[in-house]
Every structure is written in C-alpha cells, then in structure tokens.
Design goal:
30s ribosomal protein s13, domain 2; two-stranded antiparallel sheet; 2 domains; mainly alpha; 3% strand; Helicase, Ruva Protein, domain 3
Length: 122
C-alpha cells in the first residue's frame, strides 16, 4: 500500500482514481498533481516506485489537504456561528444552510422524522 499525503491509497486502483481518496483532492486536481509529479495516471498504486511516491508527496505538500483542510473548514464554520450570521445560525440549528426548502425534504440535515400527534375530531 502506497502512503501518499498521509493516506494509505488502495492497492490495485489506477493512480487517477486512487489519488482522489485524499481529502481535498478531486478528479481535476488529482490529474494536475499527477501531471506535475510526472506519474502516469494509468499506473496501479501497487506499481509505484519510491521516487514517484516522493515526487507526489513533495507536490501535495504545497496544497491544503486532509487534517489542515478539515481544521480550516471547521474553523470557518465556527467563525460563522460566532459572528451570528444567518449561515452560522443555520449551522447551529442543524438546518440546511444554502437556501433549500425545509417544509418537505431536508431529512439529511434534520434527521429522522419526529411525529407530532394528530388532532382528534371531537
């Protein structure tokens, strides 16, 4: 297993796919990093040489990935909450932040439905 950017990459995947297992690296940035490191995107992770791994690590060191990126995102959200901005309030209440409707849907943020008792006809 190749350890790149502090992450163990899956053994028999193509590098183009395997590099996206690193938090903060998607398909586009992954291709760019592989091109900069002069690594063939079609090679399997298990077939990487030590020099290629070192080149990848050196280039990935320039980007904010994994723990640094997670910490940065968490600090940004915490800052919004401390400011008392609308987005911060939505984060605090566990509701959708980006303007989605909440009358129906939004179950991902709100969690399982809490049933409210029905009215009796009496």
């Amino acid at each position: 297993m190749a350890r790149v950017g502090g992450v163990d990459l899956p053994r028999n995947k193509r590098m183009e796919v395997a590099v996206t297992y690193i938090y903060g690296i998607g398909p586009t940035l992954g291709k760019l990093v592989l091109k900069q490191a002069n690594v063939d995107p079609d090679t399997r992770t298990g077939n990487l040489t030590d020099q290629e791994i070192n080149r990848l690590n050196k280039i990935l060191h320039e980007y904010k990935i994994e723990g640094d990126l997670r910490r940065s995102v968490a600090m940004n959200i915490k800052n919004l909450m401390n400011l008392g901005s609308y987005r911060g309030l939505r984060h605090r209440r566990g509701l959708p932040v980006r303007g989605q409707r909440t009358r129906t849907n939004s179950r991902t943020r709100k969690g399982k439905r809490k049933t409210v008792g029905g009215k009796s006809k009496g």
